[in-house]
Design brief:
By secondary structure, the protein is an alpha+beta fold. It is built from 5 helices and 8 strands; from the N terminus they run E-E-H-E-E-H-H-H-E-E-E-E-H.
Length: about 190
């Protein structure tokens, strides 16, 4: 567009060939520094995962993150209720509908109930590196399907749900999934 940029502090003038080259060199150096910092952070996360010290930056529903520790909060009652309802034979969509009819502060769906029922954090354990950020630009977060090592840490924090109920719900879920598969194709599949 013919726009000239002059950096007074660095003495760079983009209208001159030397200024354009200097700007390119600064940009390359900045990119390399950013990449180096990113690699160092990744290695730091990896080392903390290996020792079971990595917590993350966001607490799951029912927990607060305080001083690097997951602490159950008042929503833990809702988590317990979800496990109780599912254990008693109520389906995930019905649980979501029931929760929505009783509390309008959070919008519940089948997938959010499903995530809670299969999250090991509720029994006090942690599976680390379920997702990871790619190392190439553009950086994006992807689900880990064995591309990176995962770490399972038992008793990493206080549980909300007893492990017997959690295991029972996982077994029920597996049985229900097998029943659906054996009953033929889903109504909306070809």
């Amino acid at each position: 567009l013919g726009v000239v940029v002059v950096f007074e502090e660095q003495g760079i003038d983009t209208s001159q060939m030397l200024g354009e080259m200097q700007l390119t060199m600064f940009a390359l150096a900045a990119q390399e520094e950013s990449t180096s910092i990113s690699q160092n952070m990744r290695r730091s996360y990896q080392m903390r995962m290996e020792t079971g010290q990595f917590v993350g930056c966001k607490a799951p529903f029912g927990f607060d993150l305080k001083d690097g520790k997951l602490i159950p909060n008042s929503d833990a009652k809702t988590v317990n209720r979800i496990f109780d309802l599912y254990s008693s034979g109520i389906g995930m969509q019905q649980i979501a509908t029931l929760l929505n009819s009783q509390d309008s502060s959070k919008k519940w769906g089948r997938s959010s109930v499903s995530c809670i029922l299969q999250n090991e954090r509720y029994v006090g354990n942690a599976l680390l590196q379920k997702r990871f950020t790619t190392s190439s630009i553009p950086f994006r977060q992807v689900v880990n399907h064995g591309d990176m090592p995962q770490y399972y840490v038992e008793h990493s924090h206080q549980s909300i749900v007893p492990s017997s109920r959690y295991d029972h719900c996982l077994l029920l879920r597996k049985e229900r999934n097998q029943t659906v598969r054996h009953n033929g194709p889903h109504l909306f599949t070809h």
